[in-house]
């Protein structure tokens, strides 16, 4: 009963977390959630006392697999992973303890993840990016600073388009490459 009653509130709050709060600290997220829940309650939309992103959008089996694959087993890390999985944007992970890095590598190992340093040459970056996009392999770029190679801009912007035959492609430099739906960046 209660979960169904609070469904509209839970979905709105979950969408807000994924869309807007992924980059913020746990305390700031919780403060926003309390404020948002209060606003929804004032509009007569029923909300539960404590909101949980993992209870609303999380899949317990997937979360267990994430923890097995080296994701720290705390609510903030699990919420971050949910934001990463649910978002339609590519994530930039600030990861001073290398926890997200280890998790991504382990999680994507079966998909033959390609790992590059941000300092890789433009040629290596372009060749790896083209192959990963075309064949649907994940690509992890480590050590990203304040600027990135401009050739990554179409990927970061998700600037795909359909050809006259309906094929989804992306233009990288002077190359137009088929965009495999399994590609992750």
Would you give an account of this structure?
This protein has 185 residues and is mainly alpha-helical. Helix content is 49%, strand content 11%. The protein contains nine helices and five strands. The chain has helices at residues 2-5, 7-21, 26-42, 53-57, 60-68, 75-86, 99-108, 122-135, 153-156; strands spanning 114-117, 139-142, 160-162, 168-172, 175-178. It has a three-stranded antiparallel sheet, covered by helices on one side. A two-stranded parallel ribbon has the order 1-2. Strand 1 (114-117), helix 8 and strand 2 form a beta-alpha-beta unit. Helix 2 (7-21) runs antiparallel to helix 3 (26-42). The longest helix is centred in the N-terminal third of the chain and has 17 residues, at 26-42. The N and C termini lie far apart (39 Å). The model has no long low-confidence stretch (mean pLDDT 91).
Shape: globular
Mean of pLDDT: 91
Q: What's the alpha carbon Rg, rounded to whole Å?
A: 19 Å
Poorly predicted tracts of residues: none
Largest sheet: 3 strands, antiparallel
Number of strands: 5
